[in-house]
């Protein structure tokens, strides 16, 4: 069931970079975040140690350290399989040690999924079947840990951290790294060979493919009708997001009714501005992808990497255009970067920059 989206908190108190103190964990907002995701306290403490402005590896690594993954030990029959992944396959983040821990198992497995690399032929049939069965449960835990990481980083007002954590979450849910040449593999009926043919024809994204005529798609992929029309029907549901952002400065603005005060923003200042944000989709009908309704996120980032505003909501709420009137406190001459994207689909991101 769809629930009301929550505006994530970006309060003034920040988690420590090391193991959080008991005082920081007793912070009301942090406790609400931990209870929201029902993760073990050690897992939450580990997520709080994600450094400021992390990269993809740091976010994914910390999420894979969740104690909930200890129920997936690396079995003796799997060691050769994971050594092959770590030592010989083109994954972006190999580990230094010989794979032996549960987090090694999750960390390496998710990377070959995101790279869309076939599994090495190093597992017996029974071991492969068991690992396939574990993978869905691993993915569910990993997604929960990443969502929690987004909220923790939002609590710190770390816009870079929020953006990277959302990037990793989006990639994990889509099964493809954002920005990779594998974006077309999200489409049902497009495999590695068809993807390569499209890339050779300078078609690298879902949006580019959706602009072609049906007969052109059939010609490129050597398929007969009605393949092209069926493909375009499917692509009509791929979310095409639109974003409009306008900023008007006011002197001595007072907090008023009807304004969205964003995440953790303090009292109005003399430099406060009213921002008008309109988000929508360009599809003829509310888009659905992979048989589900996408959720979307908005991140507004300041020059210094602080989180100015964060919003999350279902694409259903955008019908006819959703207008948000915000009170922001930017610095004079600052460039605000606004990013709007679907939470679990790569290739949907739109971004605008506005100078104050």
Mind explaining what this structure looks like?
- The protein is α+β, with helices and mostly antiparallel strands and 356 residues long.
- It has helices at 22-25, 28-37, 41-47, 56-64, 79-88, 102-115, 125-155, 159-174, 192-200, 206-210, 214-221, 227-235, and strands at residues 241-249, 273-281, 295-301, 307-314, 322-328, 335-342, 350-355.
- The strands form two sheets. The protein has a four-stranded antiparallel beta sheet with strand order 4-3-6-7, covered by helices on one side. It has a three-stranded antiparallel beta sheet with strand order 1-2-5, with no helix packed on it.
- The model is unreliable at 1-23, 251-259 and 264-270 (pLDDT under 50).
Summarize the structure.
The protein is of the alpha+beta class and 356 residues long. The protein is built from 12 helices and 7 strands. The two termini are 40 Å apart.
